[in-house]
Amino acid sequence: MLAVPKWAEGKPFLIALLAPQFASSARDIHLAFRHIRERRIVNHQYPMPALPGWFAMYRSHSKPIQFIRAFCSGFSQFGAEGIELGEMFLEATRLISRGKLKPAELTPNSEGIKHILPLLQSTLSASFQDIEEDFSDPPLDPSVKDSAQQLLRDMELESSFFILVLAPCWLLYREHPTRLYRKARLGHLDALEKLLRLDPLLLHDHSIGRQIQSFRLNNKTSAYQTLIEATLKRPKARITRKKMKYATAGLISALSNLMKKPLSEPEIRALFDAVAQDADNSPIDTDLAESPEAFAKAINRDRSFWLQTLLPDKKM
After folding, report:
1. Average pLDDT over residues 109-138
2. CA distances for 136 relative to 1, 201, 243, 253, angstroms
3. End-to-end distance of the chain based on CA atoms, in angstroms?
4. DSSP string, 228-247
């Protein structure tokens, strides 16, 4: 593998480490969402959840994140320590954005850099090796598969909400389900329809059901019919490979902005082209818009969403 490590040369460490991992993962992750309406992820079938606990997930955005933290800690190349480091970075970024911490306070001295540099280089090398192995599409280790299935069972409520609601809501609507649920409870028709298309179980939520019936009782027959039919329909958009890559490009852009080392549209495009070269022996990533302006617009749109997600306001 040559193109991806070459792209990372000269980039800040966290960008060189994270951006290639994200870009390489964006190729196939959309396949995991093919059967979310049937409450199935790959070969794992989720049972009907206890509805009070399920609806509570909409009011607490932190609980579903516990699953992705556990999943990344156990199955990603970064491990638990890497996840903790990432969380520390985000918390420091939040403090800096609110004027409670100065960037200079996080800069290590020359002695600290001397000790940490070999570790950083080793981590980066291991990351590139992990990506290269993934491109070769090796068979999944049975023990890893069993461990993943066990995690899905152990954190059934959290994992099902993350996979079936939270992640699709991010990808399809560019909005956190907690925000969308808040709007739906206030009677916003568009929010109600979006959520019911994504999660028909919300038809039985007390607050949502009351809003639906209010349309009927106020003779808003068309709106009422729209919401009832929404429970039988899929979301209007689909989670495609292109959509995943655009969302990932926005995430990479957001992270580089948080690090005060913003990546340009050509730099982000070059990363996806490098992944295409190493993974598929293709000179460019054909899923991306040919027009630099169109791709830059998509990056900007998704960057705004990710910045809002990574640095949530206090109401969230």
Report:
1. 74
2. 11, 40, 24, 27
3. 42
4. HHHTTS--SS---HHHHHHH
Q: State the amino acid at position 243 in one-letter form.
A: K
- 85 CB contacts (<8 Å, ≥6 apart)? 78
Nearest Cα residue to 212 out of 196, 199, 233, 198: 196
DSSP category for residue 288: S
Question: What span, in angstroms and rounded, lies between the C-alpha atoms of 217 and 59?
Answer: 27
220-263 residue pLDDT tens:
999 999 999 999 998 888 899 999 999 999 999 998 998 888 99
Q: Which residues of 73-107 are buried (b: 16+ CB within 10 A; e: fewer)?
A: eeeebbeeebbeebeebeebbeebeeeeeeeeeee
Indicate the SS3 state at residue 16.
Answer: helix
Which tokens belong to 300?
A: 């900007």
Q: Where are the beta strands (DSSP E) in 147-208?
A: none
Residues in the chain: 316
Q: What is the pLDDT of residue 262?
A: 93
Q: Is the pLDDT of residue 316 over 50?
A: no
Tokens of 141: 């280790």
Torsion of CA 250, 253, 254, 260, to 10 degrees: -170
Six-digit token pair at 175?
A: 């909005």
Distance of CA 2 to the CA centre of its chain: 27
Residues facing residue 40 across a β-bridge: 45
Give pLDDT tens digits for 18-31.
Answer: 899 999 999 988 88
Structure tokens of 268? 């982000």
- Is the whole-model pTM more than 0.90? no
How many whole angstroms from its chain centre is CA 177? 13
List the structure tokens of 289. Answer: 């818009």
Residue 179 belongs to what H/E stretch? helix 177-185
Nearest one of 247, 284, 222 to 171, comparing CA atoms:
247
- Residue 23's nearest CA partner among 307, 287, 311, 309 is 287
